[in-house]
Amino acid sequence: MTNLKWELLTQTDYVTTRWSGGTTTQLAIAPEGAVYAGRDFLWRLSSAKVEVERSDFTPLPDYNRLISILDGELEMKIGDGERFALESLQVCSFDGGTPVESWGKCTDFNLMLRKGACEGTVQGLGLPPASGVAWAPPVPAPQSFARLTLAIYCASGSVSILDTGLTARAGELLLCRRGENHPVPLATTDGAALLAAAIYAK
Q1: What is the pLDDT of the chain when averaged over all its residues?
Q2: Exposure pattern of 170-187 as b/e (b: 16+ CB <10 Å)?
Q3: CB within 8 A of 196, min separation 6: which ones?
């Protein structure tokens, strides 16, 4: 665990852009230096502030998407499906090429994964004060996707990765671009709400 290279990313490392319904903050992207607008990235972690009551998701037919909300309220309708409410730290996955309508003002968390090139999961975690957990991806690594990236986003409170000296506070991201499929020892003193992602790439 201590041999893994974790980095702490904060607001000064992020890139924020405006869209018709609010702002989107890019937390991390692969390959490093890729541009979202070029639509040739492998994966992207981001957080959007939705400032309008109703919006349509940007079509991304080459990507699969996972979304969760950090605060506020969000209702979604994916394709011909029923309208539903997404709860805080609940994760919804869908095809980026499927039309999506949404209602409600919120701050969300997104993972985009290029189809055929990578797969991934996002899991919401709530840690009470003075506690810890050994977090591991909830699904095994796909055999054809050998490279693993791990990401721990702190939505509220603070969280530390033991033996690394790194602590993330609200709005900060712990990222390991060369991960291993071993549990990550997390600890908090004041409690934390987290979104933990595992990204597998060829």
Answers
A1: 94
A2: ebbbbbbbebeeeebebb
A3: 122, 123, 124, 125, 135, 150, 151, 152, 153, 184
Q: Coil, strand, or helix at residue 104?
A: coil
Give the 3-state secondary structure of residue 11.
helix
Average pLDDT per consecutive 10 residues, the chain (202 residues; last block may be shorter): 82 92 95 91 96 93 97 96 95 97 96 96 96 90 85 98 95 94 94 97 90
Report yes or no: 177 and 127 within 8 Å, Cβ to Cβ.
no
**Domain 117-201 fold:** Jelly Rolls (2.60.120)
Q: Kindly report, as residue ranges, where domains of CATH 2.60.120.10 are found in the chain.
A: 9-114, 117-201
Cα separations in angstroms, 151 against 20, 39, 158: 28, 22, 15
Collapse the DSSP code of 165 into the 3-class scheme (helix H, G, I; strand E, B; otherwise coil) and give the result. Answer: coil
CATH number among 2.40.37.10, 3.90.79.10, 2.60.120.10, 3.40.50.2000, domain 9-114: 2.60.120.10
Alpha helices in the chain (DSSP H): none
For position 1, what pLDDT does the model report?
Answer: 46
Q: What letter represents residue 101's amino acid?
A: E
Which secondary structure element, helix H or strand E, spans residue 152, and what is its range?
Answer: strand 147-161
Per the confidence metrics, is the pTM higher than 0.85? yes
